[in-house]
Input
Amino acid sequence: MKALILAAGFGTRLLPYTNTVPKPLFTLGSFPVLGHTIHLLIRSGCRQIIINTHYMPDLITGFIENSKEQFDAQIHCIHEPEILDTGGAIANVKDFMADQDFFVINADVATNLDLTDVYKFHVKKRGLATLVLHDTNAFNKVAVDAGGWITGFNHPGKGLAFTGIQVLSPQIYEFMPDCKVFSSIDLYAELCKKKQVAAYVADTVFWEDLGTPDAYARTARQWMGAAALETDIQNTKILPLAGDGSDRAWFRAEPENPSGNPKISESVVICDHGICLPGTDPRAQLEAFVHIGTHLFKQKVPVPAILAHDSLAGLVVLEDLGNTHLADLVQDTSNILTIKKMYQQVIDLLVHLSRKGADRFDPSWTCQTPFYSKSLILEKECRYFMDAFVNGYLGKNLLFETFEDEFCFVAQKALEGSFQGLMHRDCQSRNIMVKNETFYFIDFQSARIGPFQYDLASLLIDPYVTLPWQVQQDLVSYAMDRLGLGSKNLRQQFTQCFQFCCLTRNLQMLGAFAFLSRIKKKNGFETYIPAAVASLKHLMQNMEPYPVTGLKELIMRL
Output
Protein backbone atom coordinates (compact mmCIF):
# COMPACT_ATOMS: atom_id res chain seq x y z
CA MET A 1 0.00 0.00 0.00
CA LYS A 2 0.94 3.62 -0.53
CA ALA A 3 0.33 6.84 1.38
CA LEU A 4 0.70 10.59 1.15
CA ILE A 5 1.40 12.55 4.33
CA LEU A 6 0.41 16.22 4.09
CA ALA A 7 3.18 18.16 5.85
CA ALA A 8 3.50 21.37 3.85
CA GLY A 9 1.43 23.70 6.04
CA PHE A 10 2.68 26.73 7.95
CA GLY A 11 1.17 25.76 11.33
CA THR A 12 -0.14 29.27 11.90
CA ARG A 13 -2.39 28.22 14.78
CA LEU A 14 0.72 27.09 16.67
CA LEU A 15 2.54 30.41 16.35
CA PRO A 16 4.94 31.58 17.69
CA TYR A 17 6.29 28.08 18.31
CA THR A 18 6.19 27.14 14.62
CA ASN A 19 8.60 29.99 13.90
CA THR A 20 11.21 27.58 15.24
CA VAL A 21 9.80 24.07 14.81
CA PRO A 22 7.50 22.96 11.95
CA LYS A 23 4.27 21.40 13.16
CA PRO A 24 5.01 17.84 11.90
CA LEU A 25 8.10 17.78 14.13
CA PHE A 26 6.27 18.61 17.34
CA THR A 27 6.86 15.67 19.63
CA LEU A 28 4.71 13.17 21.47
CA GLY A 29 6.77 11.19 23.92
CA SER A 30 9.95 12.83 22.55
CA PHE A 31 9.27 11.50 19.03
CA PRO A 32 7.91 13.73 16.22
CA VAL A 33 4.24 13.30 15.37
CA LEU A 34 5.37 12.81 11.76
CA GLY A 35 7.29 9.75 12.90
CA HIS A 36 4.27 8.40 14.76
CA THR A 37 2.19 8.88 11.59
CA ILE A 38 4.74 6.97 9.53
CA HIS A 39 4.73 4.10 12.03
CA LEU A 40 0.92 4.08 11.95
CA LEU A 41 0.96 3.74 8.17
CA ILE A 42 3.61 1.03 8.22
CA ARG A 43 1.59 -1.00 10.71
CA SER A 44 -1.32 -0.84 8.24
CA GLY A 45 0.82 -2.28 5.46
CA CYS A 46 2.13 0.86 3.74
CA ARG A 47 5.60 0.41 2.31
CA GLN A 48 5.76 3.44 0.00
CA ILE A 49 5.17 6.85 1.55
CA ILE A 50 5.41 10.34 0.11
CA ILE A 51 5.63 13.45 2.30
CA ASN A 52 4.87 16.81 0.74
CA THR A 53 6.84 19.74 2.17
CA HIS A 54 6.90 23.50 1.81
CA TYR A 55 7.46 25.23 5.16
CA MET A 56 10.87 24.48 6.76
CA PRO A 57 11.43 21.57 4.35
CA ASP A 58 15.06 21.02 5.35
CA LEU A 59 14.07 20.20 8.93
CA ILE A 60 11.47 17.67 7.80
CA THR A 61 13.71 15.99 5.24
CA GLY A 62 16.53 16.01 7.77
CA PHE A 63 14.36 14.12 10.25
CA ILE A 64 13.51 11.51 7.58
CA GLU A 65 17.15 11.12 6.56
CA ASN A 66 18.28 10.69 10.16
CA SER A 67 15.49 8.21 10.97
CA LYS A 68 15.61 5.88 7.97
CA GLU A 69 16.65 2.87 10.02
CA GLN A 70 13.51 3.21 12.17
CA PHE A 71 11.10 2.93 9.25
CA ASP A 72 10.52 -0.26 7.25
CA ALA A 73 9.31 1.62 4.19
CA GLN A 74 10.45 3.68 1.22
CA ILE A 75 9.91 7.32 2.15
CA HIS A 76 10.29 10.24 -0.25
CA CYS A 77 9.83 13.96 0.35
CA ILE A 78 8.44 16.12 -2.44
CA HIS A 79 9.00 19.84 -2.04
CA GLU A 80 6.29 22.24 -3.19
CA PRO A 81 7.91 25.61 -4.04
CA GLU A 82 4.37 26.97 -4.12
CA ILE A 83 2.03 25.48 -1.53
CA LEU A 84 -0.64 23.56 -3.44
CA ASP A 85 -3.36 23.17 -0.79
CA THR A 86 -4.66 19.70 0.05
CA GLY A 87 -6.20 18.92 -3.33
CA GLY A 88 -3.24 20.19 -5.29
CA ALA A 89 -0.89 18.13 -3.14
CA ILE A 90 -2.85 14.96 -3.96
CA ALA A 91 -2.93 15.84 -7.65
CA ASN A 92 0.83 16.46 -7.58
CA VAL A 93 1.53 12.77 -6.77
CA LYS A 94 -0.78 11.32 -9.43
CA ASP A 95 2.01 9.48 -11.23
CA PHE A 96 2.93 7.70 -8.02
CA MET A 97 -0.57 6.94 -6.73
CA ALA A 98 -2.62 6.24 -9.86
CA ASP A 99 -2.26 2.44 -9.83
CA GLN A 100 -4.01 1.52 -6.53
CA ASP A 101 -6.05 2.78 -3.57
CA PHE A 102 -3.94 4.91 -1.24
CA PHE A 103 -3.99 6.70 2.10
CA VAL A 104 -3.82 10.47 2.59
CA ILE A 105 -3.25 11.67 6.14
CA ASN A 106 -2.51 15.01 7.75
CA ALA A 107 0.81 15.27 9.56
CA ASP A 108 -0.71 17.05 12.57
CA VAL A 109 -3.08 14.43 13.98
CA ALA A 110 -2.56 11.92 16.77
CA THR A 111 -4.55 8.71 16.77
CA ASN A 112 -4.42 5.02 17.62
CA LEU A 113 -6.84 4.14 14.82
CA ASP A 114 -6.28 0.81 13.02
CA LEU A 115 -5.88 2.00 9.44
CA THR A 116 -6.20 -1.55 8.14
CA ASP A 117 -9.89 -1.50 9.06
CA VAL A 118 -10.34 1.79 7.22
CA TYR A 119 -8.74 0.38 4.09
CA LYS A 120 -10.95 -2.73 4.15
CA PHE A 121 -14.03 -0.52 4.65
CA HIS A 122 -13.06 1.62 1.66
CA VAL A 123 -12.60 -1.39 -0.62
CA LYS A 124 -15.96 -2.79 0.43
CA LYS A 125 -17.77 0.55 0.06
CA ARG A 126 -16.42 1.12 -3.45
CA GLY A 127 -16.54 4.90 -3.35
CA LEU A 128 -13.97 7.28 -4.71
CA ALA A 129 -13.06 8.46 -1.24
CA THR A 130 -13.47 7.29 2.35
CA LEU A 131 -13.05 9.92 5.02
CA VAL A 132 -12.52 8.96 8.65
CA LEU A 133 -14.90 10.89 10.93
CA HIS A 134 -14.85 11.33 14.69
CA ASP A 135 -17.23 12.92 17.19
CA THR A 136 -15.32 16.03 18.30
CA ASN A 137 -17.51 18.99 19.18
CA ALA A 138 -15.06 21.68 18.13
CA PHE A 139 -14.90 20.33 14.58
CA ASN A 140 -18.26 18.60 14.04
CA LYS A 141 -19.72 19.83 10.74
CA VAL A 142 -19.65 16.88 8.31
CA ALA A 143 -23.13 15.51 7.56
CA VAL A 144 -23.69 11.79 6.89
CA ASP A 145 -26.81 10.05 5.59
CA ALA A 146 -28.31 6.77 6.77
CA GLY A 147 -26.38 4.84 4.13
CA GLY A 148 -23.00 6.02 5.42
CA TRP A 149 -22.32 8.54 2.63
CA ILE A 150 -21.16 12.07 3.35
CA THR A 151 -23.67 14.67 2.17
CA GLY A 152 -21.98 17.95 3.10
CA PHE A 153 -19.10 19.66 4.91
CA ASN A 154 -20.54 22.87 6.28
CA HIS A 155 -22.96 22.05 9.09
CA PRO A 156 -21.34 23.60 12.22
CA GLY A 157 -22.38 21.92 15.45
CA LYS A 158 -23.94 19.02 13.62
CA GLY A 159 -22.63 15.80 12.18
CA LEU A 160 -19.06 14.68 12.81
CA ALA A 161 -15.49 15.92 12.41
CA PHE A 162 -13.19 15.04 9.53
CA THR A 163 -10.00 13.65 11.04
CA GLY A 164 -7.66 14.38 8.15
CA ILE A 165 -7.39 10.63 7.51
CA GLN A 166 -8.70 9.25 4.23
CA VAL A 167 -8.41 6.49 1.63
CA LEU A 168 -8.76 7.42 -2.03
CA SER A 169 -9.32 5.36 -5.16
CA PRO A 170 -7.07 6.26 -8.12
CA GLN A 171 -10.17 6.98 -10.22
CA ILE A 172 -10.60 10.17 -8.19
CA TYR A 173 -7.98 11.80 -10.41
CA GLU A 174 -10.52 11.77 -13.26
CA PHE A 175 -12.64 14.28 -11.30
CA MET A 176 -9.93 16.71 -10.27
CA PRO A 177 -9.95 20.23 -11.71
CA ASP A 178 -7.30 21.42 -14.11
CA CYS A 179 -6.04 24.10 -11.76
CA LYS A 180 -2.82 23.48 -9.84
CA VAL A 181 -3.94 24.76 -6.42
CA PHE A 182 -7.26 23.61 -4.97
CA SER A 183 -8.87 22.20 -1.83
CA SER A 184 -9.67 18.51 -1.56
CA ILE A 185 -12.79 19.39 0.44
CA ASP A 186 -14.14 21.39 -2.49
CA LEU A 187 -13.63 18.32 -4.69
CA TYR A 188 -15.34 16.03 -2.17
CA ALA A 189 -18.27 18.42 -1.87
CA GLU A 190 -18.96 17.86 -5.56
CA LEU A 191 -18.47 14.09 -5.32
CA CYS A 192 -20.92 13.95 -2.38
CA LYS A 193 -23.71 14.74 -4.82
CA LYS A 194 -22.93 11.43 -6.57
CA LYS A 195 -22.65 9.45 -3.29
CA GLN A 196 -18.96 8.82 -3.87
CA VAL A 197 -17.55 9.96 -0.49
CA ALA A 198 -18.02 7.40 2.26
CA ALA A 199 -17.87 7.99 6.00
CA TYR A 200 -15.84 5.68 8.24
CA VAL A 201 -16.92 6.61 11.77
CA ALA A 202 -14.14 5.98 14.29
CA ASP A 203 -16.12 6.36 17.51
CA THR A 204 -14.11 4.13 19.88
CA VAL A 205 -10.57 5.35 19.22
CA PHE A 206 -8.39 8.25 20.25
CA TRP A 207 -8.02 11.15 17.83
CA GLU A 208 -6.83 14.69 18.32
CA ASP A 209 -5.94 17.55 16.02
CA LEU A 210 -2.66 19.08 17.23
CA GLY A 211 -3.11 22.42 15.52
CA THR A 212 -3.24 24.68 18.61
CA PRO A 213 -0.98 24.99 21.67
CA ASP A 214 -3.78 23.85 24.00
CA ALA A 215 -4.63 20.82 21.86
CA TYR A 216 -0.98 19.88 21.53
CA ALA A 217 -0.31 20.21 25.27
CA ARG A 218 -3.43 18.23 26.17
CA THR A 219 -2.55 15.44 23.75
CA ALA A 220 1.10 15.30 24.79
CA ARG A 221 0.10 14.86 28.44
CA GLN A 222 -2.36 12.11 27.64
CA TRP A 223 0.08 10.39 25.30
CA MET A 224 2.87 10.30 27.90
CA GLY A 225 0.53 9.37 30.72
CA ALA A 226 -0.80 6.41 28.76
CA ALA A 227 2.70 5.29 27.84
CA ALA A 228 3.86 5.41 31.48
CA LEU A 229 0.78 3.51 32.67
CA GLU A 230 0.94 1.06 29.75
CA THR A 231 -2.74 1.56 29.03
CA ASP A 232 -4.78 2.74 26.04
CA ILE A 233 -4.60 6.47 25.50
CA GLN A 234 -8.39 6.89 25.28
CA ASN A 235 -8.69 5.15 28.66
CA THR A 236 -6.23 7.46 30.39
CA LYS A 237 -7.56 10.20 32.69
CA ILE A 238 -5.54 13.38 33.18
CA LEU A 239 -6.52 15.18 36.38
CA PRO A 240 -5.24 18.67 37.28
CA LEU A 241 -3.43 19.08 40.59
CA ALA A 242 -2.83 22.15 42.75
CA GLY A 243 -0.03 24.28 41.34
CA ASP A 244 2.97 25.86 43.03
CA GLY A 245 4.73 29.20 42.79
CA SER A 246 6.17 28.50 39.35
CA ASP A 247 4.54 28.74 35.93
CA ARG A 248 4.42 24.95 35.68
CA ALA A 249 1.21 22.97 35.80
CA TRP A 250 0.79 19.61 37.52
CA PHE A 251 -1.39 16.65 36.58
CA ARG A 252 -2.06 13.09 37.70
CA ALA A 253 -2.55 10.42 35.04
CA GLU A 254 -4.47 7.28 35.91
CA PRO A 255 -6.37 4.61 33.96
CA GLU A 256 -10.07 5.20 33.35
CA ASN A 257 -10.91 1.59 34.13
CA PRO A 258 -8.08 -0.02 36.12
CA SER A 259 -7.52 -3.68 35.30
CA GLY A 260 -6.07 -6.39 37.49
CA ASN A 261 -2.59 -5.62 36.20
CA PRO A 262 -0.71 -3.96 39.11
CA LYS A 263 1.27 -1.83 36.67
CA ILE A 264 -1.85 -0.40 35.06
CA SER A 265 -3.54 0.31 38.39
CA GLU A 266 -0.83 2.79 39.38
CA SER A 267 -0.88 6.50 38.71
CA VAL A 268 1.85 8.90 37.67
CA VAL A 269 2.35 12.63 38.04
CA ILE A 270 3.08 14.88 35.06
CA CYS A 271 4.92 18.17 35.44
CA ASP A 272 4.09 20.49 32.53
CA HIS A 273 6.54 23.34 31.85
CA GLY A 274 4.65 24.42 28.72
CA ILE A 275 6.06 24.16 25.20
CA CYS A 276 9.83 24.48 25.60
CA LEU A 277 11.75 25.68 22.57
CA PRO A 278 15.55 25.24 22.58
CA GLY A 279 17.39 28.09 24.23
CA THR A 280 14.49 29.23 26.43
CA ASP A 281 14.34 29.44 30.23
CA PRO A 282 11.55 26.82 30.51
CA ARG A 283 13.69 24.35 28.52
CA ALA A 284 16.68 25.06 30.77
CA GLN A 285 14.57 24.44 33.89
CA LEU A 286 13.15 21.22 32.48
CA GLU A 287 16.55 19.88 31.53
CA ALA A 288 17.95 20.81 34.94
CA PHE A 289 15.02 19.03 36.58
CA VAL A 290 15.67 15.87 34.55
CA HIS A 291 19.46 15.84 34.89
CA ILE A 292 19.53 16.67 38.58
CA GLY A 293 16.61 14.41 39.45
CA THR A 294 18.17 11.48 37.62
CA HIS A 295 21.47 12.10 39.40
CA LEU A 296 19.89 12.32 42.84
CA PHE A 297 17.89 9.14 42.26
CA LYS A 298 21.07 7.29 41.27
CA GLN A 299 22.75 8.62 44.40
CA LYS A 300 19.89 7.15 46.43
CA VAL A 301 18.68 10.55 47.58
CA PRO A 302 14.91 10.24 48.18
CA VAL A 303 13.39 11.94 45.16
CA PRO A 304 10.61 10.74 42.84
CA ALA A 305 11.77 8.53 39.99
CA ILE A 306 11.73 10.29 36.62
CA LEU A 307 9.93 7.90 34.29
CA ALA A 308 10.01 9.86 31.02
CA HIS A 309 10.31 13.36 29.63
CA ASP A 310 9.65 15.27 26.43
CA SER A 311 11.74 18.42 26.13
CA LEU A 312 9.72 20.12 23.39
CA ALA A 313 6.34 19.37 24.97
CA GLY A 314 7.82 20.48 28.30
CA LEU A 315 6.68 17.36 30.14
CA VAL A 316 8.29 15.26 32.85
CA VAL A 317 6.55 12.09 34.04
CA LEU A 318 7.25 11.25 37.67
CA GLU A 319 6.59 8.59 40.24
CA ASP A 320 3.42 9.52 42.11
CA LEU A 321 4.23 10.34 45.75
CA GLY A 322 0.65 11.12 46.72
CA ASN A 323 -0.65 14.39 48.16
CA THR A 324 0.87 14.74 51.63
CA HIS A 325 3.57 17.32 52.32
CA LEU A 326 5.62 17.87 55.45
CA ALA A 327 3.57 21.03 56.01
CA ASP A 328 0.42 18.89 56.19
CA LEU A 329 1.95 16.61 58.82
CA VAL A 330 3.09 19.53 60.97
CA GLN A 331 -0.31 21.20 60.81
CA ASP A 332 -1.99 17.96 61.86
CA THR A 333 0.42 17.35 64.77
CA SER A 334 0.22 19.14 68.11
CA ASN A 335 3.04 17.26 69.86
CA ILE A 336 6.20 19.33 69.50
CA LEU A 337 8.44 16.32 70.19
CA THR A 338 6.84 14.46 67.30
CA ILE A 339 7.42 17.47 65.06
CA LYS A 340 11.07 17.66 66.10
CA LYS A 341 11.55 13.97 65.28
CA MET A 342 10.07 14.50 61.83
CA TYR A 343 12.44 17.40 61.20
CA GLN A 344 15.38 15.38 62.47
CA GLN A 345 14.55 12.72 59.87
CA VAL A 346 14.43 15.39 57.18
CA ILE A 347 17.76 16.86 58.33
CA ASP A 348 19.34 13.41 58.12
CA LEU A 349 18.15 13.18 54.52
CA LEU A 350 19.29 16.74 53.82
CA VAL A 351 22.81 15.85 54.99
CA HIS A 352 22.68 12.88 52.62
CA LEU A 353 21.49 15.11 49.77
CA SER A 354 24.29 17.58 50.43
CA ARG A 355 27.04 14.98 50.52
CA LYS A 356 25.92 12.35 47.99
CA GLY A 357 24.33 14.92 45.72
CA ALA A 358 27.64 16.77 45.39
CA ASP A 359 29.45 13.55 44.53
CA ARG A 360 29.86 13.45 40.72
CA PHE A 361 27.52 16.40 40.32
CA ASP A 362 28.00 18.17 36.99
CA PRO A 363 27.58 21.97 37.39
CA SER A 364 26.55 22.19 33.70
CA TRP A 365 23.24 20.60 34.70
CA THR A 366 22.16 23.73 36.56
CA CYS A 367 19.68 26.13 34.96
CA GLN A 368 20.71 29.42 36.61
CA THR A 369 24.18 29.44 38.14
CA PRO A 370 26.39 26.45 38.98
CA PHE A 371 27.19 27.80 42.45
CA TYR A 372 25.55 29.81 45.20
CA SER A 373 27.60 32.97 44.87
CA LYS A 374 27.84 36.55 46.08
CA SER A 375 26.47 37.89 42.79
CA LEU A 376 23.49 35.52 42.99
CA ILE A 377 22.73 36.61 46.55
CA LEU A 378 22.86 40.28 45.58
CA GLU A 379 20.67 39.95 42.48
CA LYS A 380 18.25 37.10 43.24
CA GLU A 381 17.76 37.72 46.95
CA CYS A 382 18.73 41.22 48.05
CA ARG A 383 17.71 43.16 44.95
CA TYR A 384 14.66 40.89 44.57
CA PHE A 385 13.62 41.86 48.10
CA MET A 386 13.98 45.57 47.35
CA ASP A 387 12.34 45.55 43.91
CA ALA A 388 9.51 43.07 44.43
CA PHE A 389 8.67 43.54 48.11
CA VAL A 390 9.84 46.90 49.43
CA ASN A 391 9.10 48.93 46.31
CA GLY A 392 6.68 46.77 44.33
CA TYR A 393 4.51 45.42 47.15
CA LEU A 394 4.85 48.07 49.85
CA GLY A 395 4.90 50.94 47.36
CA LYS A 396 8.08 52.57 48.64
CA ASN A 397 10.64 54.21 46.40
CA LEU A 398 13.98 53.14 47.81
CA LEU A 399 17.13 52.49 45.82
CA PHE A 400 18.97 49.20 46.11
CA GLU A 401 22.21 51.16 45.88
CA THR A 402 21.40 52.90 49.19
CA PHE A 403 21.90 49.59 50.98
CA GLU A 404 24.33 47.98 48.54
CA ASP A 405 27.36 47.99 50.86
CA GLU A 406 25.33 46.37 53.63
CA PHE A 407 23.88 43.79 51.23
CA CYS A 408 27.45 42.99 50.09
CA PHE A 409 28.42 42.41 53.72
CA VAL A 410 25.42 40.09 54.21
CA ALA A 411 26.26 38.15 51.04
CA GLN A 412 29.87 37.71 52.07
CA LYS A 413 28.92 36.46 55.53
CA ALA A 414 26.39 34.01 54.06
CA LEU A 415 29.30 32.30 52.31
CA GLU A 416 31.90 32.38 55.09
CA GLY A 417 32.09 29.18 57.09
CA SER A 418 29.71 27.43 54.73
CA PHE A 419 29.46 23.66 54.76
CA GLN A 420 29.68 23.09 51.01
CA GLY A 421 27.66 20.44 49.23
CA LEU A 422 24.71 20.22 46.89
CA MET A 423 22.02 22.65 47.98
CA HIS A 424 18.37 22.20 47.06
CA ARG A 425 17.78 25.99 47.13
CA ASP A 426 14.07 25.73 48.00
CA CYS A 427 13.99 23.18 50.78
CA GLN A 428 10.75 24.17 52.50
CA SER A 429 7.95 22.00 53.87
CA ARG A 430 5.84 22.09 50.68
CA ASN A 431 8.76 20.69 48.72
CA ILE A 432 9.05 17.68 51.00
CA MET A 433 6.52 14.93 50.46
CA VAL A 434 5.63 11.94 52.59
CA LYS A 435 4.74 8.52 51.25
CA ASN A 436 4.69 5.33 53.31
CA GLU A 437 6.34 7.20 56.21
CA THR A 438 9.29 8.18 54.00
CA PHE A 439 10.21 11.77 53.17
CA TYR A 440 11.03 12.78 49.58
CA PHE A 441 12.48 15.99 48.15
CA ILE A 442 10.73 17.51 45.14
CA ASP A 443 11.25 20.68 43.04
CA PHE A 444 15.02 20.27 42.95
CA GLN A 445 15.57 21.95 39.57
CA SER A 446 17.33 24.93 41.19
CA ALA A 447 19.92 22.77 42.94
CA ARG A 448 23.56 23.84 42.76
CA ILE A 449 26.73 23.66 44.81
CA GLY A 450 26.42 25.83 47.89
CA PRO A 451 26.12 25.99 51.66
CA PHE A 452 24.22 23.32 53.54
CA GLN A 453 23.25 26.13 55.91
CA TYR A 454 21.03 27.72 53.26
CA ASP A 455 18.88 24.60 52.91
CA LEU A 456 18.74 24.28 56.68
CA ALA A 457 17.62 27.92 56.89
CA SER A 458 14.94 27.32 54.23
CA LEU A 459 13.66 24.36 56.22
CA LEU A 460 13.60 25.99 59.66
CA ILE A 461 12.34 29.54 58.97
CA ASP A 462 9.68 28.25 56.58
CA PRO A 463 6.57 30.48 57.03
CA TYR A 464 4.27 27.63 55.96
CA VAL A 465 4.81 26.02 59.38
CA THR A 466 6.44 28.73 61.60
CA LEU A 467 8.49 26.51 63.91
CA PRO A 468 9.06 27.98 67.40
CA TRP A 469 12.39 29.75 67.79
CA GLN A 470 13.72 27.28 70.37
CA VAL A 471 12.82 24.33 68.17
CA GLN A 472 14.77 25.95 65.36
CA GLN A 473 17.81 26.30 67.62
CA ASP A 474 17.57 22.70 68.79
CA LEU A 475 17.41 21.50 65.20
CA VAL A 476 20.45 23.59 64.24
CA SER A 477 22.38 21.84 67.01
CA TYR A 478 21.10 18.50 65.78
CA ALA A 479 22.27 19.31 62.24
CA MET A 480 25.76 20.23 63.47
CA ASP A 481 25.95 16.95 65.37
CA ARG A 482 24.94 15.00 62.25
CA LEU A 483 27.62 16.82 60.27
CA GLY A 484 30.21 15.86 62.87
CA LEU A 485 31.02 19.43 63.92
CA GLY A 486 32.38 18.87 67.40
CA SER A 487 34.67 21.80 68.06
CA LYS A 488 33.39 25.08 69.42
CA ASN A 489 35.10 27.02 66.64
CA LEU A 490 33.51 24.97 63.84
CA ARG A 491 30.10 25.25 65.45
CA GLN A 492 30.47 29.03 65.80
CA GLN A 493 31.44 29.34 62.12
CA PHE A 494 28.55 27.13 61.09
CA THR A 495 26.08 29.09 63.21
CA GLN A 496 27.19 32.47 61.90
CA CYS A 497 26.88 31.31 58.29
CA PHE A 498 23.48 29.82 59.12
CA GLN A 499 22.25 33.15 60.57
CA PHE A 500 23.17 35.04 57.42
CA CYS A 501 21.69 32.31 55.21
CA CYS A 502 18.48 32.74 57.21
CA LEU A 503 18.65 36.44 56.39
CA THR A 504 19.25 35.98 52.64
CA ARG A 505 16.60 33.26 52.46
CA ASN A 506 14.11 35.49 54.26
CA LEU A 507 14.78 38.32 51.82
CA GLN A 508 14.24 35.92 48.93
CA MET A 509 10.97 34.62 50.40
CA LEU A 510 9.50 38.07 50.78
CA GLY A 511 10.52 38.99 47.24
CA ALA A 512 8.92 35.80 45.94
CA PHE A 513 5.69 36.14 47.96
CA ALA A 514 5.31 39.74 46.78
CA PHE A 515 5.99 38.88 43.14
CA LEU A 516 3.67 35.88 43.14
CA SER A 517 0.80 37.69 44.78
CA ARG A 518 1.12 41.06 43.01
CA ILE A 519 2.37 40.12 39.54
CA LYS A 520 1.32 36.50 39.12
CA LYS A 521 -1.99 37.05 40.98
CA LYS A 522 -1.44 33.94 43.11
CA ASN A 523 -3.04 35.54 46.12
CA GLY A 524 -2.60 32.56 48.41
CA PHE A 525 1.06 33.46 48.88
CA GLU A 526 0.16 36.84 50.36
CA THR A 527 -1.11 34.99 53.44
CA TYR A 528 2.47 34.13 54.42
CA ILE A 529 3.95 37.61 54.13
CA PRO A 530 3.24 38.60 57.79
CA ALA A 531 4.99 35.47 59.09
CA ALA A 532 7.96 36.09 56.80
CA VAL A 533 8.19 39.73 57.95
CA ALA A 534 8.03 38.65 61.59
CA SER A 535 10.79 36.12 60.97
CA LEU A 536 12.97 38.74 59.28
CA LYS A 537 12.52 41.18 62.17
CA HIS A 538 13.36 38.46 64.68
CA LEU A 539 16.55 37.67 62.80
CA MET A 540 17.65 41.32 62.83
CA GLN A 541 16.80 41.79 66.49
CA ASN A 542 18.87 38.80 67.54
CA MET A 543 21.84 39.47 65.26
CA GLU A 544 25.10 40.78 66.64
CA PRO A 545 25.86 44.47 65.97
CA TYR A 546 27.18 44.02 62.45
CA PRO A 547 27.55 47.01 60.08
CA VAL A 548 24.04 46.73 58.67
CA THR A 549 22.33 49.52 60.61
CA GLY A 550 20.56 51.00 57.57
CA LEU A 551 19.17 47.63 56.52
CA LYS A 552 18.16 46.86 60.08
CA GLU A 553 16.31 50.17 60.38
CA LEU A 554 14.49 49.48 57.10
CA ILE A 555 13.47 46.00 58.21
CA MET A 556 12.32 47.01 61.66
CA ARG A 557 10.01 49.62 60.08
CA LEU A 558 8.28 47.10 57.76
